[in-house]
Amino acid sequence: xxxxxTSPLGVMGPSAPTVVxxxxxxxxxxxxxxxxxxxxxLHYSTSLLILDLSEVSFCDAAGLxxxxxxxxxxxxxxxxxxxxxxRPFLSRLLHISGLDxxxxxxx
Length: 107
Prior knowledge:
Elements: E1 2-5, E2 18-26, H1 31-42, E3 48-59, H2 61-76, E4 80-84, H3 88-97, E5 105-106
Parallel strand pairs: 2-3, 3-4, 4-5
Antiparallel strand pairs: 1-2
Helix pairs in contact: 1-2
């Protein structure tokens, strides 16, 4: 699992979203590191954090739990979390789990 923060601190204005591109597998083996990185990102995020899932090749329940946990923490900080460009398998997983209703999608 690789996290690439595509909008580092100071580069974009406060109204521009913070975009984090995820790649590789998000599973029980990588989820804790991802959780720490995303929670750290919240400290300098704008009012919208977008998780770009276009390069995620696998995601299990641990990965979904990370997304929900980060969303809950972000909400407390006044930050919205949205997902972008999930591959078809991940879109289906989000739909089956009902998380597509909790985590909005952006173009």
